[in-house]
Amino acid sequence: MAPRIDSVVNLARKARTRTTKRTLADAPTLATVCGREKQDTLRVWGPYKEGPSSFRLKVAENGVERSIKFRTQEEAERVKQELCTKAAATARKQVGEALLEWVTASEAIVKPNTIDNYRKMVAQLPHTLVIDQLTVEQASRLYQQQIERVSPRTGRKISTATQHLFLWVVRRFWDWAIDKGYAKMNPWMKVRKVGRANVGKPQLRIDEARKLEAVAIQRAQEGDSAALGVLLMLYLGLRQGEVAARVARDIDDDGRVLWVPSGKTKNARRRLKIPEQIRPLVLTRIEGAAPDAQIFYPQHHCRHHNNYYVEQLRRLCRLAGVPVVCPHSLRGMHATLALEGGATGDAVAKALGHGSFEMTKTHYASASSVANNESGRVAAALAGVPKEKELLNLLKNIPSDELDRLLLSLRSGCQSGGHIEENGAT
Does the fold of domain 206-384 match that of domain 95-190? Predict the structure, then answer.
């Protein structure tokens, strides 16, 4: 009996399916050509000749298939090889190799000290780790290792802020790797932070700050340049790096003005008024010094050492008999005392080189000084402060450079004073 037509059609379909599967299995793929493992999702078949001047590549990636047509077989083969090369580079790029490339690319836009810290963070990952093969589970385990890591310097587990910074840096590194084609996704984005970082640094009490001030002034009068630098941190809210980088020409207007032409951020550029009580000490310090000579940092040091002022401040704290604090704490102390004295939040933020008071309030000034400053202004408004007192408070809160321009205007008898630009022109 002749087979029914339906049976013949079904057998033909099954045979065609088996033939297609065999053809696809035997076809050259990027996994075979580039030596990649079977689990990789990028494949290419061809080129197939479809006419005298038509050749086709079939490309499948992440379950999506598409065809690309070319005029010549040579062009199709060239594109196939480029796909192969790019896929191989993506598959094999390791953290150690990519880290060097990332550091080089970042040098033009990130300060050297910052990029060095970033490099140290990423360098804690296995250098042979293939970037594109990192899973969320593996990333979570690596982050957990950071949480448990012991600092070789302190002998204690690293702080919550440090392990949060590690997570932020590796996320940024992986985003760069995606842009370069070394990875398809960022597994670190699904890793959740652990713990809550402490905000701000421990500060001295006001009486303790006065004791530190007295010792620092005494030592500065004896020629201790580091003690004078500590006083500038306390009085002006300078960063330790800003103090160490100052040269003789940064002292202007007969010792009344200190210029900070650049710094950690774009807001670091500012002009500050040196307090009268240390002005003679500053003038003595720059006497006979070359314009580019460092004045608050030892001349024999070829480069700034991050721990120099940490050690100097520790020494002065011990001499004063007060708790040991870090230089960054003095910036917070400056913000606290300025707010307690009635300065506006914006004025304090500008003195510290911040773009807004939000940064000052969150990381520097104590919460009580912020609250006292705000409540004092409310109480003054409700009580109806006399006009004379309002004028005094207004003058107190005017930034030093604005006050200098106002005094210049009053002395000259003009209605509007000359504007002092940051380059020194009037």
Answer: no
- For 165, the token pair is 């910074």
Fold of 206-384: hpI Integrase; Chain A (1.10.443)
The two structure tokens encoding residue 85: 């090369």
- What is the enclosing helix (H) or strand (E) of 30? helix 30-33
Joined together, the tokens standing for residue 174 give 């992986």
Compare 358 and 275 and report the one with higher pLDDT.
275
Higher-confidence residue of 258 and 15: namely 258
Maximum mean pLDDT: which of 38-47, 77-86, 161-170, 358-367: 161-170
CB atoms closer than 10 angstroms to residue 68: 16
Sign of the CA dihedral 264, 265, 269, 272? Answer: negative
Domain residue spans of the chain: 23-91, 95-190, 206-384
Contact call for residues 184 and 178 (beta carbons, < 8 A): yes
Q: Which two tokens stand for residue 133?
A: 């093969």
Q: How far apart are CA 131 and CA 117, in angstroms?
A: 20
Cα separation, 42 vs 88, whole angstroms: 11
237: pLDDT strictly greater than 90: no
pTM of the model: 0.49
Euclidean distance between CA atoms 115 and 107, whole angstroms? 7
Q: Do 27 and 19 meet the contact criterion of CB atoms below 8 Å apart?
A: no
Helices (H), 153-194: 160-180
* pLDDT higher than threshold 80 for residue 187: yes
Please list, in sequence order, all residues whose beta carbon lies within 8 angstroms of the beta carbon of residue 425, skipping any fewer than 6 positions away. none
Return d(Cα 7, Cα 400) in angstroms, integer: 97
Higher pLDDT, 212 or 39: 212
Answer yes or no: are the C-beta atoms of 259 and 359 closer than 8 Å: no
**Mean pLDDT lowest among 158-162, 232-236, 313-317, 366-370:** 366-370
Angle among Cα 94, 97, 98 to the nearest 5 degrees reads: 80
| pLDDT surpassing 50 at residue 28 | no
The residues with which 41 forms a beta bridge, in sequence order, are none
Amino acid at 374: E
Q: Which SS3 state, helix, strand or coil, does residue 184 take?
A: coil
**Would you say residue 401 has pLDDT above 70?**
no
- CATH number 3.30.300 is the correct assignment for the domain at 95-190: no
